[in-house]
Amino acid sequence: MDSIRSSVHNLHEDSIDLYVQLSKLINEFKFCKATLNYEFSSNPDVKIKYAIIAIVKEALSNIIKHSNATTVTVSLYEHPKLYQVIILDDGSKKKVSMDGGMGLQSIEKRVNSLNGIVNFDNSKGFKIFISIMKEGKL
């Protein structure tokens, strides 16, 4: 019985469509104009999918709380050895501390848990640059 439960659970996890989930988040985001650029051709591991969804949710929440942005762009690119996520807005509110609050720390923890790299830039608007290596691709 446990193996059946586990199989059904794994089926559900594998069936998560990252593009559909992110499109839904972008379409439901009403704070400002939001755009999704999705250029993944492969199907990332489920833990990467969940992390990306959570990161985008957190970034959009931070935009609502801390930005006066009029546009936000969420871009996902696939390269031979890594996945790249770039989230940027055109807000001009005062500079936020880069050692930041819980939201940025949460994003950093998620990326680090996947042995990825995250950089924040607030020189023009706010940008989050994330690189996550594909499994086994060093």
What class do helices, strands and sheet pairing give?
alpha+beta
The CATH architecture: 2-Layer Sandwich
What sort of overall outline do the alpha carbons produce when their principal axes are compared?
globular
Question: Which residues sit in consecutive blocks of at least 5 with pLDDT less than 50?
Answer: 3-11
End-to-end distance: 39 Å
The CATH superfamily is known as: Histidine kinase-like ATPase, C-terminal domain
> How much of the residues is beta strand, in percent?
25-35%
CATH topology: Heat Shock Protein 90
Helix content: 40-55%
Summarize model confidence as the mean pLDDT. Answer: 87
The biggest beta sheet is recorded as:
5 strands, mixed
Q: How many structural domains?
A: 1
Q: Please work out how many helical segments DSSP would assign.
A: 4
Q: What's the number of extended β-strand segments?
A: 5
Characterize the structure shown.
- With 138 residues, the chain is an alpha+beta fold.
- The protein has a single domain (17-133), classed as Heat Shock Protein 90.
- It has helices spanning 2-14, 18-28, 46-66, 102-113; strands at 33-39, 71-78, 82-89, 117-121, 126-133.
- Strand 4 (117-121) and strand 5 (126-133) form a beta hairpin.
- Helix 2 packs parallel to helix 3 (46-66) and helix 3 (46-66) runs antiparallel to helix 4.
- The relative contact order is 0.16.
